[in-house]
């Protein structure tokens, strides 16, 4: 019998908040998705059995998450009441902590909502993938329908699938904006990768959940990500939006677009994320308006 992935057997962290749990659940779903693709690819001679095993993994993770959600919901109110009655001094001490700015509170609230939504999105993607059929066609159709619904007439510009697809997509967006008169600075894909890694390295608060979900230290995660062929993901999207001071909208099928860097005005980049562009795995492309 194939050994279960470690993310299915790890116990949840002690004293984990609901928001942190939702963030961890999202990353566990993404990690399992990658593990499933790898497992099926490595077991082509026993494909049917491998698919059955991965379905069991999905069920185990879904049950694990449901149980954790039930546990935390049932414990929130009594725990808070106990703290109020038994630890008034500690609560007073906590009140001395620096207050968050209005912008920071707004940003954290927005992220909490996005995390909860992403959990639902990832579950739907798994269900869609298990139904079979031409997922690439269905996925592209859904992306275009969502773009049209948002009043965006766009086309997909395919970029290279050399492990640098995210960075290649941003390079294409830079060239597109420059052609429209924007003064955005030009970078190569390799330069963008370095900028993203430097930003991740500087901010543990935002990015620690990403490398912990991969069961890596920050140093291990960045050592891999700095390699030219390493696939960039959502963490790198966040970092690129920051370093380029650009609103970045990631359009994807079966979900709402992810809008990053809303605080940056005057420039917007559009890219698309595909789970099924290639049989080998996920891929980013650039999106340009129809002229």
Automatic annotation (TrEMBL):
InterPro entries on file: OTU_dom, Papain-like_cys_pep_sf, Peptidase_C85-like
Highest taxon listed in the record's lineage: Eukaryota
CDD domains: OTU_OTUD6-like (cd22748)
Pfam families xref list: OTU (PF02338)
Ranges of residues in domain OTU: 154-290
TM spans (from-to): none
Extent of Basic and acidic residues compositional bias: 13-27, 91-103
Region named Disordered: 1-27, 91-117
PANTHER family: OTU DOMAIN CONTAINING PROTEIN
Protein name: OTU domain-containing protein
Lineage summary: Eukaryota, Metamonada, Carpediemonas-like organisms, Aduncisulcus
């Amino acid at each position: 019998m194939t050994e279960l992935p470690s993310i299915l057997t790890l116990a949840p962290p002690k004293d984990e908040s609901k928001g942190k749990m939702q963030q961890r659940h999202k990353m566990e779903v993404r990690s399992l998705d990658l593990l499933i693709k790898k497992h099926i690819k490595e077991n082509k001679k026993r494909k049917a059995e491998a698919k059955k095993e991965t379905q069991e993994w999905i069920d185990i993770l879904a049950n694990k998450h449901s149980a954790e959600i039930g546990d935390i919901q049932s414990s929130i109110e009594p725990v808070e009441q106990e703290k109020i009655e038994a630890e008034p001094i500690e609560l007073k001490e906590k009140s001395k902590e620096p207050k968050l700015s209005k912008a920071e509170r707004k940003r954290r609230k927005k992220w909490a909502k996005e995390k909860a939504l992403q959990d639902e999105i990832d579950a739907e993607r798994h269900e869609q993938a298990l139904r079979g059929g031409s997922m690439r066609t269905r996925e592209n159709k859904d992306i275009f329908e969502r773009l049209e619904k948002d009043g965006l007439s766009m086309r997909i510009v395919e970029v290279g699938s050399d492990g640098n697809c995210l960075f290649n997509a941003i390079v294409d967006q830079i060239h597109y904006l420059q052609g429209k008169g924007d003064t955005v600075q030009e970078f190569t894909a390799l330069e963008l990768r370095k900028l993203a890694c430097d930003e991740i390295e500087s901010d543990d608060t935002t990015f620690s959940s990403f490398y912990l979900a991969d069961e890596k230290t920050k140093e291990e995660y960045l050592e891999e990500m700095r390699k030219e062929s390493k696939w960039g993901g959502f963490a790198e999207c966040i970092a690129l939006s920051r370093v380029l001071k650009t609103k970045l909208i990631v359009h994807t099928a079966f979900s709402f677009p992810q809008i990053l860097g809303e605080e940056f005005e005057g420039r917007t980049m559009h890219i698309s994320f595909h789970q099924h562009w290639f049989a080998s795995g996920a891929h980013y492309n650039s999106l340009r308006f129809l002229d």
